Amino acid sequence: MDTQVIPLPTRTPIRKDISNRFTVAEVEALFALPFNDLIHQAATTHRAHFDPNRVQLSTLLSIKTGGCPEDCGYCPQSARYHTGVENQALLNLDAVVSAAKEAKAHGASRFCMGAAWRGPKQRDLEPVLDMVREVKALGLETCCTLGMLKEGQAEQLKDAGLDYYNHNLDTAPEFYGDIITTRDYQDRLDTLERVRDAGIHVCCGGIVGMGESRTQRAGLIAQLANLDPQPESVPINNLVQVEGTPLHGELQGENALDWSEFVRTIAVARITMPKSFVRLSAGRQEMPEAVQALCFIAGANSIFHGEKLLTTGNPEADRDRALFAKLDIKPL
User: Fold this and answer.
1) Is 208 helix (H, G, I), strand (E, B) or coil?
2) Is the CA virtual torsion 162, 110, 69, 126 positive or negative?
3) Whole-angstrom Cα distance, residue 17 to residue 1?
Protein backbone atom coordinates (compact mmCIF):
# COMPACT_ATOMS: atom_id res chain seq x y z
CA MET A 1 0.00 0.00 0.00
CA ASP A 2 1.33 3.46 -0.93
CA THR A 3 1.98 5.41 2.28
CA GLN A 4 3.04 8.66 0.64
CA VAL A 5 1.45 11.66 2.36
CA ILE A 6 -0.57 13.87 0.05
CA PRO A 7 0.96 17.36 0.44
CA LEU A 8 -1.15 19.72 2.53
CA PRO A 9 -1.64 23.37 1.60
CA THR A 10 0.84 25.79 3.09
CA ARG A 11 0.30 27.15 6.59
CA THR A 12 -2.00 24.26 7.51
CA PRO A 13 -2.41 24.15 11.33
CA ILE A 14 -1.15 20.58 11.61
CA ARG A 15 0.33 18.67 14.52
CA LYS A 16 3.80 19.89 15.33
CA ASP A 17 5.01 16.32 15.96
CA ILE A 18 4.92 14.94 12.44
CA SER A 19 5.04 11.36 13.76
CA ASN A 20 1.54 11.83 15.17
CA ARG A 21 0.01 12.86 11.87
CA PHE A 22 -2.37 10.60 10.00
CA THR A 23 -1.45 9.79 6.43
CA VAL A 24 -4.24 9.35 3.93
CA ALA A 25 -3.16 5.73 3.51
CA GLU A 26 -3.50 5.10 7.25
CA VAL A 27 -7.00 6.56 7.31
CA GLU A 28 -7.98 4.60 4.21
CA ALA A 29 -6.77 1.43 5.94
CA LEU A 30 -9.29 2.12 8.72
CA PHE A 31 -12.05 2.45 6.12
CA ALA A 32 -11.00 -0.93 4.73
CA LEU A 33 -11.37 -2.83 8.02
CA PRO A 34 -14.13 -5.45 8.19
CA PHE A 35 -17.30 -3.57 9.10
CA ASN A 36 -17.81 -5.26 12.47
CA ASP A 37 -14.17 -4.72 13.45
CA LEU A 38 -14.32 -1.05 12.48
CA ILE A 39 -17.52 -0.43 14.45
CA HIS A 40 -16.10 -2.25 17.48
CA GLN A 41 -12.93 -0.15 17.42
CA ALA A 42 -14.91 3.06 17.02
CA ALA A 43 -17.34 2.16 19.82
CA THR A 44 -14.46 1.27 22.12
CA THR A 45 -12.76 4.59 21.38
CA HIS A 46 -16.03 6.44 21.97
CA ARG A 47 -16.60 4.79 25.36
CA ALA A 48 -13.10 5.73 26.46
CA HIS A 49 -13.93 9.43 26.17
CA PHE A 50 -17.71 9.86 26.27
CA ASP A 51 -20.89 8.43 27.78
CA PRO A 52 -22.17 6.30 24.85
CA ASN A 53 -25.79 6.95 25.85
CA ARG A 54 -25.63 10.74 25.74
CA VAL A 55 -25.96 12.92 22.64
CA GLN A 56 -25.43 16.68 22.39
CA LEU A 57 -28.30 18.60 20.73
CA SER A 58 -27.69 21.67 18.59
CA THR A 59 -30.22 23.82 16.76
CA LEU A 60 -29.26 25.61 13.54
CA LEU A 61 -31.01 28.79 12.40
CA SER A 62 -30.44 30.55 9.09
CA ILE A 63 -30.18 34.20 10.09
CA LYS A 64 -29.41 35.32 6.52
CA THR A 65 -30.70 33.09 3.74
CA GLY A 66 -29.83 33.03 0.03
CA GLY A 67 -27.92 35.32 -2.29
CA CYS A 68 -24.46 33.88 -1.63
CA PRO A 69 -21.95 34.71 -4.42
CA GLU A 70 -20.04 31.44 -4.01
CA ASP A 71 -20.43 28.50 -6.43
CA CYS A 72 -20.43 25.53 -4.01
CA GLY A 73 -21.95 22.76 -6.13
CA TYR A 74 -24.11 21.37 -3.34
CA CYS A 75 -25.57 24.62 -1.98
CA PRO A 76 -29.10 25.87 -2.70
CA GLN A 77 -28.20 29.29 -1.26
CA SER A 78 -25.87 30.20 -4.12
CA ALA A 79 -27.15 33.12 -6.20
CA ARG A 80 -25.75 31.31 -9.25
CA TYR A 81 -28.35 28.53 -9.14
CA HIS A 82 -32.14 28.46 -9.53
CA THR A 83 -33.23 26.51 -6.47
CA GLY A 84 -36.22 28.51 -5.26
CA VAL A 85 -34.24 29.93 -2.34
CA GLU A 86 -34.68 33.69 -2.38
CA ASN A 87 -32.19 36.27 -1.17
CA GLN A 88 -33.52 37.33 2.21
CA ALA A 89 -32.52 40.07 4.63
CA LEU A 90 -30.81 39.39 7.94
CA LEU A 91 -33.30 38.34 10.62
CA ASN A 92 -33.95 40.85 13.35
CA LEU A 93 -32.70 40.32 16.88
CA ASP A 94 -36.09 39.53 18.38
CA ALA A 95 -36.72 36.73 15.86
CA VAL A 96 -33.36 35.13 16.60
CA VAL A 97 -33.80 35.33 20.38
CA SER A 98 -37.30 33.84 20.08
CA ALA A 99 -35.92 30.92 18.04
CA ALA A 100 -33.13 30.40 20.57
CA LYS A 101 -35.62 30.27 23.45
CA GLU A 102 -37.68 27.68 21.58
CA ALA A 103 -34.57 25.61 20.85
CA LYS A 104 -33.61 25.63 24.51
CA ALA A 105 -37.13 24.60 25.50
CA HIS A 106 -36.80 21.59 23.18
CA GLY A 107 -33.54 20.47 24.79
CA ALA A 108 -30.85 22.09 22.64
CA SER A 109 -27.70 23.10 24.48
CA ARG A 110 -26.06 24.89 21.54
CA PHE A 111 -27.60 27.44 19.16
CA CYS A 112 -25.95 27.86 15.77
CA MET A 113 -26.53 30.91 13.56
CA GLY A 114 -25.72 30.65 9.86
CA ALA A 115 -25.51 33.39 7.24
CA ALA A 116 -25.14 32.91 3.48
CA TRP A 117 -22.20 35.24 3.00
CA ARG A 118 -18.82 34.79 1.38
CA GLY A 119 -17.70 36.57 4.52
CA PRO A 120 -19.27 39.28 6.68
CA LYS A 121 -18.61 42.96 6.12
CA GLN A 122 -18.27 44.95 9.32
CA ARG A 123 -21.80 46.35 8.91
CA ASP A 124 -23.04 42.73 8.66
CA LEU A 125 -21.10 41.62 11.70
CA GLU A 126 -22.38 44.28 14.12
CA PRO A 127 -25.97 42.92 14.40
CA VAL A 128 -24.63 39.36 14.62
CA LEU A 129 -22.55 40.35 17.63
CA ASP A 130 -25.78 41.49 19.33
CA MET A 131 -27.36 38.13 18.50
CA VAL A 132 -24.43 36.25 20.03
CA ARG A 133 -24.65 38.33 23.22
CA GLU A 134 -28.40 37.76 23.62
CA VAL A 135 -28.27 34.02 22.88
CA LYS A 136 -25.35 33.60 25.27
CA ALA A 137 -27.39 35.37 27.96
CA LEU A 138 -30.02 32.62 27.64
CA GLY A 139 -27.48 30.07 28.91
CA LEU A 140 -26.93 28.43 25.52
CA GLU A 141 -23.62 27.69 23.87
CA THR A 142 -23.27 29.95 20.84
CA CYS A 143 -22.06 29.03 17.37
CA CYS A 144 -21.85 30.98 14.11
CA THR A 145 -21.09 30.10 10.52
CA LEU A 146 -20.67 33.31 8.53
CA GLY A 147 -18.13 32.39 5.87
CA MET A 148 -14.55 33.62 5.71
CA LEU A 149 -13.39 35.92 8.49
CA LYS A 150 -11.09 38.90 8.07
CA GLU A 151 -8.42 39.94 10.55
CA GLY A 152 -9.97 41.07 13.82
CA GLN A 153 -13.45 39.68 13.21
CA ALA A 154 -12.92 36.47 15.19
CA GLU A 155 -11.77 38.55 18.15
CA GLN A 156 -14.98 40.60 17.99
CA LEU A 157 -17.05 37.41 17.99
CA LYS A 158 -15.06 36.07 20.93
CA ASP A 159 -15.62 39.28 22.89
CA ALA A 160 -19.36 39.02 22.22
CA GLY A 161 -19.40 35.54 23.78
CA LEU A 162 -19.09 33.19 20.81
CA ASP A 163 -18.18 29.66 21.87
CA TYR A 164 -17.87 27.89 18.49
CA TYR A 165 -17.26 28.92 14.90
CA ASN A 166 -18.21 26.53 12.11
CA HIS A 167 -16.18 26.53 8.92
CA ASN A 168 -16.14 23.19 7.10
CA LEU A 169 -13.33 21.93 4.86
CA ASP A 170 -16.07 20.20 2.83
CA THR A 171 -13.86 17.57 1.16
CA ALA A 172 -10.28 16.50 0.44
CA PRO A 173 -7.90 19.05 -1.11
CA GLU A 174 -7.59 17.13 -4.39
CA PHE A 175 -11.40 16.96 -4.86
CA TYR A 176 -12.17 20.46 -3.64
CA GLY A 177 -11.82 22.15 -7.02
CA ASP A 178 -14.49 19.86 -8.48
CA ILE A 179 -17.01 21.26 -5.99
CA ILE A 180 -15.98 24.90 -5.40
CA THR A 181 -13.98 27.36 -7.52
CA THR A 182 -14.75 30.74 -5.91
CA ARG A 183 -12.48 30.17 -2.89
CA ASP A 184 -9.60 27.80 -2.33
CA TYR A 185 -8.63 25.41 0.43
CA GLN A 186 -6.17 27.84 1.95
CA ASP A 187 -8.96 30.40 2.42
CA ARG A 188 -10.74 27.92 4.67
CA LEU A 189 -7.59 27.10 6.60
CA ASP A 190 -6.85 30.79 7.12
CA THR A 191 -10.28 31.35 8.69
CA LEU A 192 -9.80 28.34 10.97
CA GLU A 193 -6.45 29.74 12.06
CA ARG A 194 -8.03 33.11 12.90
CA VAL A 195 -10.74 31.36 14.91
CA ARG A 196 -8.17 29.37 16.89
CA ASP A 197 -5.98 32.41 17.49
CA ALA A 198 -9.00 34.24 18.93
CA GLY A 199 -9.64 31.43 21.42
CA ILE A 200 -12.91 30.22 19.87
CA HIS A 201 -13.69 26.50 19.65
CA VAL A 202 -13.59 25.09 16.13
CA CYS A 203 -16.50 23.28 14.50
CA CYS A 204 -15.17 21.81 11.26
CA GLY A 205 -16.25 18.84 9.18
CA GLY A 206 -17.29 18.01 5.66
CA ILE A 207 -19.77 16.55 3.22
CA VAL A 208 -19.64 13.03 1.84
CA GLY A 209 -21.60 11.54 -1.04
CA MET A 210 -20.58 14.24 -3.55
CA GLY A 211 -19.00 11.74 -5.94
CA GLU A 212 -15.68 11.53 -4.13
CA SER A 213 -13.73 8.28 -3.90
CA ARG A 214 -13.06 6.45 -0.64
CA THR A 215 -9.47 7.69 -0.85
CA GLN A 216 -10.79 11.24 -1.03
CA ARG A 217 -13.08 10.62 1.95
CA ALA A 218 -10.00 9.39 3.78
CA GLY A 219 -8.22 12.55 2.67
CA LEU A 220 -10.94 14.70 4.25
CA ILE A 221 -10.74 12.83 7.55
CA ALA A 222 -6.93 13.04 7.52
CA GLN A 223 -7.12 16.81 7.01
CA LEU A 224 -9.54 17.20 9.92
CA ALA A 225 -7.63 14.86 12.22
CA ASN A 226 -4.34 16.66 11.50
CA LEU A 227 -5.64 20.06 12.53
CA ASP A 228 -3.85 21.10 15.71
CA PRO A 229 -5.71 21.10 18.01
CA GLN A 230 -8.34 18.84 16.52
CA PRO A 231 -11.80 20.40 16.05
CA GLU A 232 -14.00 20.25 19.13
CA SER A 233 -16.99 19.51 16.86
CA VAL A 234 -16.87 17.56 13.60
CA PRO A 235 -20.11 17.65 11.56
CA ILE A 236 -20.33 14.84 9.01
CA ASN A 237 -22.92 15.70 6.35
CA ASN A 238 -24.45 13.29 3.85
CA LEU A 239 -25.16 15.22 0.65
CA VAL A 240 -28.76 16.42 0.30
CA GLN A 241 -29.33 16.80 -3.42
CA VAL A 242 -31.31 19.99 -4.03
CA GLU A 243 -32.92 20.58 -7.42
CA GLY A 244 -31.17 23.37 -9.28
CA THR A 245 -27.71 22.72 -7.83
CA PRO A 246 -25.01 21.15 -10.05
CA LEU A 247 -24.88 17.98 -7.94
CA HIS A 248 -28.62 17.32 -8.16
CA GLY A 249 -29.38 14.07 -9.99
CA GLU A 250 -25.72 13.26 -10.59
CA LEU A 251 -25.36 10.75 -7.77
CA GLN A 252 -28.17 8.25 -8.15
CA GLY A 253 -28.20 4.45 -8.11
CA GLU A 254 -24.75 2.92 -8.09
CA ASN A 255 -23.21 6.41 -7.92
CA ALA A 256 -24.94 7.22 -4.63
CA LEU A 257 -23.08 6.77 -1.36
CA ASP A 258 -24.12 3.52 0.29
CA TRP A 259 -25.36 3.75 3.88
CA SER A 260 -22.57 1.45 5.06
CA GLU A 261 -19.93 3.83 3.69
CA PHE A 262 -21.51 6.71 5.57
CA VAL A 263 -21.42 4.71 8.83
CA ARG A 264 -17.77 3.85 8.10
CA THR A 265 -17.05 7.57 7.75
CA ILE A 266 -18.57 8.26 11.18
CA ALA A 267 -16.53 5.41 12.69
CA VAL A 268 -13.25 6.56 11.15
CA ALA A 269 -13.90 10.13 12.30
CA ARG A 270 -14.42 8.83 15.85
CA ILE A 271 -11.24 6.75 15.85
CA THR A 272 -9.04 9.51 14.45
CA MET A 273 -10.63 12.31 16.53
CA PRO A 274 -11.42 10.51 19.80
CA LYS A 275 -12.18 13.58 21.93
CA SER A 276 -14.24 15.52 19.37
CA PHE A 277 -18.00 15.66 19.22
CA VAL A 278 -18.87 13.91 15.95
CA ARG A 279 -22.12 15.34 14.67
CA LEU A 280 -24.60 13.43 12.54
CA SER A 281 -25.62 16.38 10.39
CA ALA A 282 -27.31 16.99 7.01
CA GLY A 283 -28.99 14.05 5.33
CA ARG A 284 -30.42 12.61 8.52
CA GLN A 285 -34.02 13.19 7.43
CA GLU A 286 -33.60 10.61 4.67
CA MET A 287 -31.70 8.21 6.91
CA PRO A 288 -33.54 5.15 8.32
CA GLU A 289 -33.60 4.85 12.10
CA ALA A 290 -31.46 1.71 12.00
CA VAL A 291 -28.70 3.54 10.11
CA GLN A 292 -28.83 6.42 12.59
CA ALA A 293 -28.57 3.88 15.42
CA LEU A 294 -25.44 2.41 13.81
CA CYS A 295 -23.97 5.89 13.57
CA PHE A 296 -24.50 6.41 17.30
CA ILE A 297 -22.89 3.04 18.01
CA ALA A 298 -19.99 4.06 15.75
CA GLY A 299 -19.35 7.19 17.76
CA ALA A 300 -21.68 9.97 16.62
CA ASN A 301 -22.67 11.90 19.72
CA SER A 302 -24.16 15.14 18.44
CA ILE A 303 -27.08 15.98 16.13
CA PHE A 304 -28.87 19.00 14.76
CA HIS A 305 -32.20 19.06 16.55
CA GLY A 306 -35.21 20.73 14.94
CA GLU A 307 -37.30 20.67 11.79
CA LYS A 308 -34.93 22.57 9.49
CA LEU A 309 -31.26 23.15 8.91
CA LEU A 310 -30.30 26.23 6.89
CA THR A 311 -32.65 25.47 4.00
CA THR A 312 -33.10 21.68 3.97
CA GLY A 313 -35.31 19.49 6.11
CA ASN A 314 -34.34 17.76 9.34
CA PRO A 315 -36.22 15.15 11.42
CA GLU A 316 -38.83 16.70 13.68
CA ALA A 317 -38.02 16.95 17.37
CA ASP A 318 -40.75 14.42 18.21
CA ARG A 319 -39.15 11.86 15.88
CA ASP A 320 -35.79 12.39 17.55
CA ARG A 321 -37.29 11.93 20.98
CA ALA A 322 -38.97 8.71 19.85
CA LEU A 323 -35.71 7.37 18.41
CA PHE A 324 -33.78 8.32 21.55
CA ALA A 325 -36.37 6.48 23.64
CA LYS A 326 -35.88 3.31 21.57
CA LEU A 327 -32.10 3.56 21.97
CA ASP A 328 -32.14 4.68 25.64
CA ILE A 329 -30.21 7.81 24.63
CA LYS A 330 -30.51 11.01 26.62
CA PRO A 331 -29.48 14.56 25.67
CA LEU A 332 -26.36 16.01 27.26
Assistant:
1) strand
2) negative
3) 23
pLDDT tier at 17 (50, 70, 90 boundaries)?
very low
Distance CA(268)–CA(247), nearest Å, equals: 25
Q: What torsion do the CA atoms of 281, 282, 288, 291 make, to the nearest 10 degrees?
A: -40
Q: Which residues are tagged catalytic?
A: 68, 72, 75, 112, 143, 203, 279
pLDDT at residue 3 is higher than 70: no
Burial of 318 (0-12, 13-18, 19+ CB in 10 A): exposed
Contact yes or no for 226/192 (Cβ under 8 A): no
Angstrom distance (rounded) from CA 190 to CA 151 = 10
- Cis? peptide before 246, omega within 30° of 0: no
Cα(217)–Cα(28) distance, integer angstroms:
8
Q: How confident is the model at residue 305 (pLDDT cuts 50, 70, 90)?
A: confident
- Cα separation values, 197 from 148, 155, 188, 204, Å: 15, 8, 14, 15
Render the burial of 155-188: b for 16+ CB within 10 Å, e for the rest.
ebbbebebbbbbbbbbbbbbbbeebbeebebebb
- DSSP assignments along 290-313, one per residue: HHHHHHHHTT--EEE-SSBSSSSB
